[in-house]
Design a protein that fits this description.
Helix content is 83%, strand content 0%. The chain has helices spanning 3-13, 21-77, 81-91, 96-103, 107-125, 129-141. The longest helix is centred in the middle third of the chain and has 57 residues, at 21-77.
């Protein structure tokens, strides 16, 4: 029900208390004005509250993302220099053939280096999978 409809319903329920047209008119205008002000105030409070929640979510997501990157970055730093380079290029979105061209190595060498690097990362991150899983899970559920 909108404010004007609510005003008429409220007025109708109290019609026995109103004795003149001018007092009815004043009553309706005042009721609508006050309800409108209350509505705008409530919306402002609600909007401010939602902004605070979004800011907290953003901060939380940023922390989770940074921690996840930190965990993965530390694991990548334990790889051989060539493994680090191939994984970093992969994370940058390059395809195997693009990595091979940029590094001046064969496609099969890229695949071998990448396979060994991912195997080493799985071993290194084995005990941190659950932690990474929760980081990703909470990031996705916060929206």
């Amino acid at each position: 029900m909108d404010i004007v409809q609510d005003a008429f319903a409220y007025f109708w329920n109290r019609r026995s208390e109103i004795h003149s047209i001018s007092s009815a008119k004043c009553y309706l205008f005042k009721y609508v004005k006050n309800r409108s002000i209350n509505y705008l105030r409530d919306r402002r409070v609600e909007t401010a509250y939602l902004k605070r929640i979004e800011t907290k979510k953003f901060a939380s997501n940023t922390i989770i993302e940074e921690e996840t990157h930190h965990i993965i970055y530390n694991a990548i730093q334990l790889l051989s220099p060539q493994g680090q380079r191939v994984i970093e290029m992969t994370l940058d979105g390059l395809k195997n053939h693009e990595i091979a061209i940029q590094l001046g190595i064969s496609l099969n060498t890229v695949k071998t280096i990448k396979g060994r690097a991912f195997k080493a990362l799985r071993v290194e991150l084995k005990d941190r999978y659950i932690e990474l899983f929760f980081h990703v899970l909470f990031r996705q559920t916060d929206g």
